[in-house]
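Archive transcription. Copying these from loose printouts into the bound notebook so they stop getting lost. Printout 1 of 2:
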Amino acid sequence: MSVPVFYPRSIERRLAEALEDSPVVLIHGPRQCGKTTLAQFTCAPNYLTWGGDFLTWGGDRLSWGWSPQHRDYTYISFDDAGVREGARADPLGFVADLPERVILDEIQRIPDLFEAIKVEVDRRRIPGRFVLTGSTNVLLLPQLSESLAGRLQIVRLHPLAQHELAARSAASTLEAGFLHALFGDGFAVHRTERLGDRLIERIVAGGFAPALKRPTARRQAGWYRDYVEALIQRDVRDVARIRSLDILPRLLSAAASQTARLFNLADLASPFQVSRPTIGDYVTLLERLFLLDRLPSWHNNRLSRLVKSPKLHMADTGLAAALLGADTRALKADRALLGQLLETFAFQELRRQASWHEAPTSFFHFRDKDGVEVDIVVEQGSRAVAGVEVKAAATVTRADFRGLRKLARAAGDRFAHGVVLYDGEFSVRFGDRLHAVPIRRLWEAP
């Protein structure tokens, strides 16, 4: 029998740390990103199904202290209709009857359980008591998240990062990782091989493991389209009452065409026979399902002529490419679309890495009314600021650093480094704290 291919999840250590001191830990992220597998591997390995989508890489990885006796959780899924109806009928009784340690999968399907869990935690507060997984962002549902304030730790799980796809652990890349260099000593002169078409293939493939298991790009794109249809038919019905569900796939496709652009509600709403506020509500719903992200603008008191509109990004470039019908050949022919998807690819890769990074990290974009911009602004803590510009070209010129130089002047002493990511061969300096860096350096140590 062949051995299945599994991927490391670098957020695993963060999950284990949360379980040591938080009575409720919620793993949330889009459907099919690996939440159930991560919860089961960490807390209930006896429930793992080897025929599932993917598992965490092998070995007894308990050196960080999550002891084997704590890995005996009971696993309950609310995708089971009988369990779901029982929990809805009597939330307080359902929670009171649960075992001491339990995983509750797809908790967003039974929102009344949040209050019942609060009651149980207040009655008996045990670290790691409840592990919840959810495919809806509860941070955008204040009435739910507030009910567990002070009792809940959230672990955000994204689709696979590029170094996870290469089966590299966080421990092996953290000290040499991109964010570490961006806010540390910078990027030494280094030569590497261009990715070329392989970079476009990575963009089109995306980071969802079930799609990546498909043998061809055409089959992968088919999985993404089926994924959207299934998610809208199931999850949307659980979290919102929408009369015209057929609008959502078309709206998501329209959003994919605008990824890495300034968010423009009027442009998104124009093809549809519904009001702008309704389309705005639908966009918020797609954010709740982790399909879209709005990247806020960076601001500074030194600059008064900044564009304040957020940027729109798809949550995964594989999903975006599939919705747009853009395969590798199409992206090679359409450089503008390639530039958009590459920027989203870099942004999402950085967000995925930041989710397990030691320092709190926030993301923005920078643009002034003269059109000077920086694709991604990264802040760590309350002080350090860095900028990342993304280019699909194989060469970099001094003009490509215009936005980064303006950001550096605005940030002053807070400015750490500015980087132009490109598909070239050399990491090289372009001035004080300014670097051109091959894009593969995002996930590969030099």
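Printout 2 of 2:
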Amino acid sequence: MRNLTLLTDLYEITMGQGYFNEGRHEKLAVFDVFFRPNKLITYSVAAGMEQVADYLENLHFTEDDIAYLRSLGCFSEEYLAYLAGLRFTGDVTSVEEGEMVFPYEPILTVKAPMIQAQLVETAILTFVNHQTLIATKAAKIVDAAGGGVMEFGLRRAQGADAGIYGARAAMIGGCVGTSNVYAGKLFSVPVSGTMAHSWVMDFENELEAFRAYARSFPDNCLLLVDTYDTLRSGVPNAIQVFKELRQRGYEGKGIRLDSGDLAYLSKRARKMLDEAGFENAIICASGDLDEYSIASLKEQGAKIDSWGVGTKLITSADLPALGGVYKLAAVFEGDKEIPKIKLSDTTEKITNPGEKEVYRIYDRATGKAIADYIVRAGEHIDESAPLELFHPVETWKRMTIENFTARNLRSPLIAGGKRTRTSEPLSTYSERFKKEKSRFWEEYTRRDMPHIYKVDLSPALFALKADMVCRGKGK
């Protein structure tokens, strides 16, 4: 496992020197990870928690790390000696991977000595921001396609790690496979892929290229048919090879379209395959697809069975950053909590102070989610009594609910520096997301102009926040 302790911004380490000099480095602190609204974010799919746990368990500065920091000329020898023995000893509470999450709610909380909690900020945001972003993009693409989406983005990813962990996140979001062989091995997920245009171009003609491929892979023969002319040569040549395979006791798997008018070509290709007796041959489409183009193709009646999606998935092309932040919520003096708040002239940038928990409120009769409810740590939700929900800014917007259930969205990830959750297959996380999404009305998750899902504060948390805002207590 790589040691990523130096995967941080310099200011995290310089602040550490300051905390150390001021004798504040061992003071217990609480930081929340959350993201703010964006017009393209209707919901998000949490991912990256396992990488957070791996990173924190392995946190330590090597001799080389210390030597490099010494070479910068910024740090005292006493501080460097302290860093040389530093390990993460704190606690982390988070949602599970595959959980649906919404703006403002703390999806991960670090409670640790101040210097530890500060040093890990950048890396935690790196893991959670990236994978949550890609898992969410994948979920929206899969929703548009109705399933059958393969992640094909490695060659367009912004670096190797983005390709590897982007593939991981895409599987959590509902993709059924990846072209990334390394990710397939690392995460034990299905890999898929057959040929490129260069294979076809290397042979004297397209038919010979298809025959050669069929000789190597007779029981998994999926042919790329758009190298020259999809309907005049590609599909007819594929049909010819499928007939030859059938005479040998095999069935051709299908064809892939990678360019052109995919709606028109898929409908014509489907008709040609069916008339030739290959009704079970699938049609796979690829080529700069996303949820919008896939939805359009389906509306046009495209006859496509599976989708290979690359660039616009692995880069989340229309929203290249989630925008998650890491904000101080509280410090402790002994056992006494001192809530902290960041103030701003922009309402959306005012943070929620203190230690918190997040509950999802469901209608007991329908099982559908009503709202997420952020409370102060230790608050009890009485499911036998009516619960009043109100907008945290436009407080006149209120509703009272009865006959509900409440589920705590978060659980310990790290306790005393050691992980408390076992690693699970990515299929477990994707099934968690699929199951939870089914508990939301489609008005909240639809692609175009969705309703805004409610994320409300308890009266106690609202009162604390309002008091700190009024008194200007950002200190």
